Amino acid sequence: MPAPTTPDLGWLPHFCLAGYLLFLLGIGIWGVLKSRSGEEDYYLAGRGQGWLVSSLTIMATFFSSAAMLGAPGAVYKEGVVFALFALNVPLSGAAIYVLGNRIRKLGHTHGHVTPADLICKHYGSSVALRCLVALIGFLYAVPYVVIQIQAGGIISERLFAGEHAFEIGACLLSLVTMLYIMIGGMRSVAWTDALQGALLMTGMLLAGLAAVAALGGPSAFFEKVNDLPHTSLSVPGTTGSFTPEKMFTLCIFGALGSMIQPAQWMRFYAAKSAKALRRSAVIFALGLTACFLFGVMLVGLGGQVLYPLAKPNADGVFEYQVQSDGQATPLIEADLAKRLANGAQPLPHPDVGTGPRDFDQIMVVVLKRHLPELLGPAGLLLGTLIIIAIMAAAMSTADSNLHAMSAVLTRDIYGGVLRPGASEKSRLWVGRGVIFAATVLSLGMVFISRSSESFDPIGMIMPMSILAIAFSSQLLPVTIDVLFLKRGSREGAIAGIIAGMLVVLMFSPIPAIITGSDSAVVGMFTRLKQLADIGFCGVVVNVTVFALVSLKNKTN
Amino acid sequence: MFMGPGPGLRLVNPEPSVDSESLRFLGLPVIYAWGLFWYGIQAAVVVTASFTLWKTDDE
């Protein structure tokens, strides 16, 4: 199907985006006016969040730009198998109540602010444990903030013409986000998240509708989808990466690892009551999964029809374009898995992008090209609003992670280890300084990555975002022990976390740097990564070490 | 989780040799229809739990 030409959106995106950013700043100022002095109010909004704000802020924090760009991009690349990844969301929803309500209750009783406060109180004060929990929080938050800023730049580049559209977009996103967190704290973050969460859900569903409408309605849509290549409609997908076993572990640890990361943990503390979390859990599990399955995932499937990855050759066999040794070469469906295992990478349709990383562009391409064609000026407005919803997804994740990082570094490291006697006022100012420094650092990494061909931190950080969830999953054994079992020891918790983190590190690029990419160790972990989720592997070792050391302590 | 996105998928995953009719169920791709079915099950479990198991005495 020939792609329509990209229409000029004129000044519409400028007005919409300016109005949206001003509104966010207004909420930030409102947060200051409503705030009371003190750390508890700045980090937890006085522990008084109701169910509506709680559910929307938890959703907005859970879904980053990866949900709006990455998920449809993955379905566009892998086919329908990746749509099943949405089934991790109901498990996350259940975790909001099952884990979150116990965390909330302990937090309210003992005045906890960060995850380390609760964990260290249970096991007895320990500098090592506090530092480890803070390190996990830091390793989770940093890649996420960097990727959201990068997404803001990409959206700006797609919306506006101009040489420096990327830089202006990334700076604007960072500046506005940083300002409203610094001035309003959790109250501003939660209220902006509530707006962004509502915008995000609407945008996800509208995007799905747009994709279905672009192919002539639901019947025609699925009729055309059913004609896609076999690999797009079956497991393990186009690249052969998503086996059922890998999907299973990925869904479980993706769901739970994302729910016990510091920003979500602090949202549980901030909830007003069990009822607020119970309702949040139901809204999250039902609403967000529907947005995925009936929204953005359909964009990826429709994208495969509108911008095919493979075309039938003269013999009627589907032929893909893959990149191997920097060259694009055609490859038939039967040979695909073998060549991809040897390092070749599939390429998207040329109208979507030219490189193996351009699959994520499918959402913006479909919205920008097909909505105006279908709906005229109303389509232009709708397309612009959905693209702003993508920006909202980026900002809501960046703000939550920056805010949580500030709490973790200030309370756990500055106040807990470096200056235990520091006043609350000085800790608050250090927290604001952390937000400023982390924003500037993240922005710097985005710019360096863009301007330098030899140094590409984003290239390293993209796999790091998968590692980030694996790192936060290492809090799972101690969390279960603290909330339910109460059988572990402090030494066991420390040893388990260290062992789990070391296993996760073995899946990072570090072993390849030390031992060379051809070594047996790297080969073993690469094969293991194809079988199961990284977080799962880490947690298996973590639980084993935790249990053995705790048992030994008890015997002694 | 085991049945929806997990190993249970092997029960419905079409073999490479099957014709295109076997790739669909009620007009939908069979894997997508499988996902919708298990979404329904998960949603029912969460709603039931919220009305029964998750009623705590601090509410």
Notes on the protein architecture:
The complex is a heterodimer of chains A (556) and B (59). In chain A, a hairpin with a 2-residue loop joins strand 2 and strand 3 (327-332). The radius of gyration of chain A is 23 Å and the shape is globular. In chain A, strands 1, 2, 3 and 4 form a 4-stranded antiparallel beta sheet that branches. Chain A folds into 2 domains: 12-34 and 50-308 and 356-450, Up-down Bundle (Sodium/glucose cotransporter), CATH 1.20.1730; 310-347, no CATH class. Chain A has helices at residues 12-34, 39-44, 51-62, 65-78, 89-98, 100-110, 115-123, 127-159, 165-214, 218-225, 244-259, 262-270, 274-306, 333-341, 362-375, 377-418, 424-451, 457-473, 476-485, 490-506, 510-515, 520-531, 534-555, and strands spanning 310-312, 318-324, 327-332, 345-346. Chain A is mainly alpha-helical and 556 residues long. Chain A has 23 helices and 4 strands. Chain B has 59 residues and is mostly helical. Chain B has one domain (7-51). Helix content of chain B is 37%, strand content 7%. Chain B is built from 1 helix and 2 strands; from the N terminus they run E-E-H. In chain B, strands 1-2 form a two-stranded antiparallel ribbon. Chain B is elongated, with a radius of gyration of 16 Å. Chain B starts with 23 loop residues before the first strand and ends in an 8-residue tail after the last helix. The mean pLDDT of chain B is 84. At the A-B interface, helix 5, helix 10, helix 11 and helix 13 of A face strand 2 and helix 1 of B.
